[in-house]
Amino acid sequence: MCEVKKAFVLGMARSGYEAAKFLVNKDYSVVINDSKKDQNPDQIKELHKLGIKIHLGGHPEELFDSTFDLLVKNPGIPNNHAYVKKAAELNIPVINELELAYRYFPKGVKIIGVTGTNGKTTTTTIIYKLLVETGKPAYLMGNIGFPVCSFVSKLKTGDIAVMEVSDHQLCNVIEYKTDISLLTNISEAHLDFHGNYSTYKSMKKRIFNHHTKDDLAILNLDDEESLNLSKDIKSARKYFSSLSKNDKGASIIDGHICYNNEKVFALKDLKVKGRHNYENVMAAIAVVKEFGVDNEAIIKVLSSFGGVAHRLEYVTTINDIEFYNDSKATNITSTQIALSSFDNPTILLLGGLDRGHSFSELKDYLKNTKLIVAFGQTKERICSFASENNIPCKAFDNLEEATFEAYFNAVAGDVVLLSPACASWDQYDNFEIRGDMFKKYVENLSRKYE
Q1: How much is the pTM?
Q2: Across the strands, what pairs with 249?
Q3: 373: closest CA among 358, 389, 356, 351?
Q4: Residue 288 to residues 1, 143, 252, 297: CA-CA distances in angstroms?
Q5: Which is it for the CA torsion 119, 120, 125, 127, positive or negative?
Q6: Cα–Cα distance between 396 and 382 in angstroms, integer?
Q7: Which fold has domain 104-304?
């Protein structure tokens, strides 16, 4: 009789919960551990019924020992965690939920892996929508919010797994391999997690692990860091560029996104604005062309694609005034990108939790801003910043009042942009709720005034 294997799942969240269930289904005896006691009670009940041992509220040293065969780590837990170090001493493999699921994938499933510092979610979403539009058997999974383990039982030969893959996930992959790897761009990020920029880049490079000339890397021709990082990979290559003509790949020519120099879609018809979004769209097109997606399908999807929720998301147009929800912009850099995306006169909704951060780095991005409407804890400091830069500013306690004021000060051709440059926690539990409430306020305006 075979001895039952033991797996230790470090970290609950969605990926830990799915990994634990998956392991039980593969005949492992499972222990799951998280430092936080407050977990989803329905999930806890389900795991208990499956016979999974649950330890919450801390990481006692004796809980993880040499009797385990495998440690499955939540991507957000660093590799210097005590249990991870102990696993290395005991020669116990440390992987994550992505690697675990991959090891059980059926043969013949095509894997698209999308990573990069910015644009991952939007690009992954566009790829998925384009494939589904043409009837391809595609599944959306990974860092985008859908654990890979939850799809393994559904997959069959010929299916396409469209994965957003984070640098945190790439830390603990061993066998994981894609058929197509897309690197959107590279810049400094998550240095607190990785310790330095060099390590961060080396993790991103793992998206090309185990590639041969039969696999494809899609790269940003305008991003020097991406090109340098991928110099020695073995993959075949295809490029996208918003700055130069690209005969074999995607580029912008005469106001159109083109593929192999053929016009595909007019920039003026895209609802998602800005160079970064044009790059996301080009990268997605470069991927789906490998699966035979035609221009007709691309036009249909892009004509209605308003972006990923809360990431420079097109909301609606009221009396020729466009509304955009960029509630995910919880820092100055994100708001800089948002402001750079519009040439129209813009009314900027700015504000939220006061972390004491300066707004001065927005100065050079406000050339099209006709009015700032400030709200939340930072409203007074924002008004002072606006005054110093000779930009009109009005302050309100909450986002609802600010949204209505923005509309009443807008005229046809203007953009009303929620890009707060602040966290939401002064008034909302998270940026998603803040963005959803903004959309509700805009919907109320539409009903009343359109």
Answers
A1: 0.85
A2: 239
A3: 351
A4: 48, 20, 17, 11
A5: positive
A6: 11
A7: UDP-N-acetylmuramoyl-L-alanine:D-glutamate ligase (3.40.1190)
The angle subtended at Cα 40 by Cα 37 and Cα 44, nearest 5°, is 80
Determine how β-strand 262-266 pairs with β-strand 256-259. Answer: antiparallel
Residue 320: Cβ-neighbour burial (10 angstroms; 0-12, 13-18, 19+): exposed
* Contact of 339 with 365, CB cutoff 8 Å: yes
Does the domain at 313-449 match CATH 3.30.70.2860? Answer given as no
Contact 255, 267 (CB under 8 A): yes
Residues 324-379: tens digit of each pLDDT: 999 999 888 889 989 999 999 999 999 999 988 899 999 999 999 999 999 999 99
- pLDDT tens digit string along 30-52? 999 999 999 999 999 999 999 99
Distance separating alpha carbons of residues 2 and 43, to the nearest angstrom: 30
For the domain 5-95, what is the CATH code? 3.40.50.720
- Mean pLDDT, the chain, as a whole number? 95
Is the distance from CB of 438 to CB of 399 less than 8 angstroms?
yes
Q: At which residue do the structure tokens 């800089």 appear?
A: 336
pLDDT of res. 2: 61
